[in-house]
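pinned: reference chain
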Amino acid sequence: MAITAVGSVALDSIETPFGSIEHVLGGALSHFALAASLYDTVNMVAVVGTDFPERFMQHFRARSIDLRGLQVREGATFRWGARYHLDMNTRDTLYTHLGVFADFHPTVPAEYRGAEVIFLDNILPQLQLDVQRQTDEVAATDGSTRLRALDTMNLWIETTREDLLRVMRGVDIMLIAEEEARQLAETPSLRVAARFILERGPKLLVVKQGSYGAVMFGADGSFFAAPAYPLEDVCDPTGAGDAFAGGFLGYLASRLTRAGRVTETDYRRALIHGNILGSFACEAFGVERLLTLTPEQIAERYEEFVGFTHFEGSWRDAPTG
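pinned: its structure tokens
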């Protein structure tokens, strides 16, 4: 079983108050794939230029990442640069050079189209619609539950809103940052925003809240929240949300591999795995921490989550004054 994911692979240059690094492996799909491949095989659909370093290709090959959908085209790889402020929650984009990504038209290999999880990473909604058309006609390879997931950003909400709404109608899960959920629904209320989004197609909404954790809303009215892992030091938050998506969908893919379906408990555990992978991603520049991460370290942090989020008793045990 596998996850088919389409998105961006880039070369990033990053400045934070604690250091800087140039031309490292970046892009939303890189962070997602390196995180999700710790759980299941990832079929990567993306494009890079002929300047893309071979050592970064080796990073992908060292994991359970299938590269038959990765196009290598004449020209320059997508490059992005940013400078983070002291709070590490705000940043200034210094430059965006799309290179070959500007003319990217995703072609999903036939072998990828029956994957149990289809992830439309944060790219132009018109391209996401194209991937939907290529994959929706093929059922999951073994007839098990199939999950289709979507991520997006404020730029697409502002510039291609109608196309984004069309994509939403064809997915099961939507992942989005909190401020973008409010922007999409045009409301200050997160609960109202969640209802707006769920009424437009997705059965599950996952709202990423950065250093505060994540919250999940179901179309059936269910609700679940989990805090972020309390890091002592944050080196670089770039790609943390993409690694979150990798942990969340990677865990669900692994459950589909074992059980052929996912339960409400699986979704809740997946949210914890998302928070865990997002926290590890912040511990080093670029994707460096994801390259050294092991399943044992994920399991150890999961047990910490169980410990610091568990409590017993009921409201009847509270003092009455």
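why pinned: The CA atoms of residues 172 and 202 lie 5 Å apart. Residues 2-317 form a domain with the UDP-N-acetylmuramoyl-L-alanine:D-glutamate ligase fold (CATH 3.40.1190.20).
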